[in-house]
## 1
Amino acid sequence: MHGKEPLYRRVNTRTHGVRHGGSDYKFSRHIKKQDKTSRGSMHGEKQHGLDYTPLFRFLLSKVGQDWAEVHNQAVARLDRQDPIYWMVAVIEAERKPFVRIGENSYYSGLYVDEDNRLALVDPGLRLEDMRPSCSCCTHTFNGKPFVREYEPI
């Protein structure tokens, strides 16, 4: 019997036209005046090709449940813990009604309340309240496309 599915997916990053930045090294490697501090490893901290949408859906489905259990379940099914805290604010000062993940994806902000339960920062926030920032992209809130049209200000 296999364990549960991971809460992330691998995305194709080798397709033609997929760009991930990081090309500045090729322009700076032949500069004559170069200090040794900039000659570090070319392999940075970024991990491309991972989509954490299943994690965000999982966290939203666990609102109202015990944080310790939810956290343990999520960590067991992830490659690292960082993406959990993109959405869940542990410190009160970090609470936001919604968080932006990527360019056009927005999710409800979560926090751990005084009873150690996962809760929404703004339970009254609805899809109808969200406004897109441009007309060229499809913006989503909790995985659903915005219903309002773009209105230039």
## 2
Amino acid sequence: MDQDWEERMAALWDRFDDYAETEEGGARLRSDVDALVAELPEGSPLGLFEQGCAWDSTGDSDKAVPLYREALEKGLADISPDKARQTKIQLASSLRNTGRAEEGVALLTPELLAPSDELDDAVRAFLALCLSDLGRDREALALVLGALAPHLPRYQRSTANYARLLVEPGAHPGA
């Protein structure tokens, strides 16, 4: 990846709030992303990821889904494992937004076993949202509490245990 290009794309996203939450603002954001993506080789997984982000960020999850999928299929993980994990999180969110939460669960569940990084809590948060949409609220709550527990100044062990007990077969949460 070209560091200058990455910095310019990051600067564009840093200005996200400058784009009004209107159809025109969204179109301008997508146009600015497209202009930077045009500097990459055609079909670049990184460009597809950024274009998916632009559609997603402007409320068009349905248009983001195929771009995210294509970015992963074309080897985004080889270019940027971090962006590939971001893509999976964002794709799962977009799938949920388009009524396909089960696909989001299938996509994020393996990420629970992936090497740990700064996106672990985000994986759990979006997996919990997908699970909740499927009526699996106890599992969702267990994930969220499990992610929250290490950040608490006190009661970390208790919170983690209660999270586990929410989904452990035959367990009683009051135990």
## 3
Amino acid sequence: MNNDVEEYLKEGIYGAKQTKPGERRRYLGTLRERIVLMLSKGQVMQQQGMDELVEEMKEHPEAELLMNGKISNRFRKKYAQLADQHHIHATSVLDQEKETDVGVLLVVDYAIEKETIEVDTTEKPPVEEEKEKGVKGFLKRLFRPL
């Protein structure tokens, strides 16, 4: 009985205990297990990952879009418009205590445990260029027909 009263008082003073507070700080208040797709701040500022985001919005119409409120509105605006077009609720998260590299999250309110949530927007060299590297590529360039 005494422990219950003590727990009740602590909760009243400090608020309810949160599970995985470090994870929640990084992922704009949500848990990793609920994330469908994540874009970094850099990707948001360069307007990358939009095609992938649209695909996931189509697959998860019940999802919500969380946007890092520390990113300028001019960068967030396009993502908010995408969410609006797909009838997905968008929220800017401003009350972050710690700096995070997360720019935008598409989340659901249940655990999905998706293995890969990040979008890879780095440019990959074409297959032909990849094959021509090394000795063969060097010889091919050296003995090009004139």
## 4
Amino acid sequence: MTASGNRGPYAKTAAVRRRVLEACVDAFAETGFYGATMKDVAKRAGISHTGLLHHFPRKEDLLLGVLELRDERGTEFLASAKVLDPTADPIDILNGMIAVIVDNELQPGLMELHCVVSGEATSPNHPAHSYYAERYRNLRRFYADTFTALAERNGLRPSIDPETLATMTISLINGLQAQWLFDRDSVKVESAIRQFLSSVIPGLPSDAFA
């Protein structure tokens, strides 16, 4: 009975925190970390400023919560696309990553958040600096491992270094995402990524990643 009675408050608290973080995605996406205010986030979430401080005492706590939420969504998509399976075929892994980028990240609020906050976070003093530095290290390692596996199967152009290609791939994706925010009708993120990967994997047509 006690356990059952406790579920209500916990569920309500989790729901409020989730609503705050969703509101924070929009706020940070529009004005960046420095431009957003706690009062604005509270208003967007439909709670009092005092109520917001109860859940997130500092704006830095809000930012970390938003980044964790983004990572949770990404991990769910990665798992559903079987990208996290180390035994998977490298082509299947790249296919899964494309699906994650298109299905999970090409959402206006999240994409704007990423572009704005990651740009601000290049400053070593930004609260998300370490987060993004580690995120990019992990992404480079992930793509480098995938391209290395392809090279070992003679599936990669021999003149291309897997680690350099990993950096190029991430740069392409980031650039396409930023351009997509400016012109969502003309910029075809998925098509551009598929054509790029097909250009470095010999004999592989762009529709192989489908």
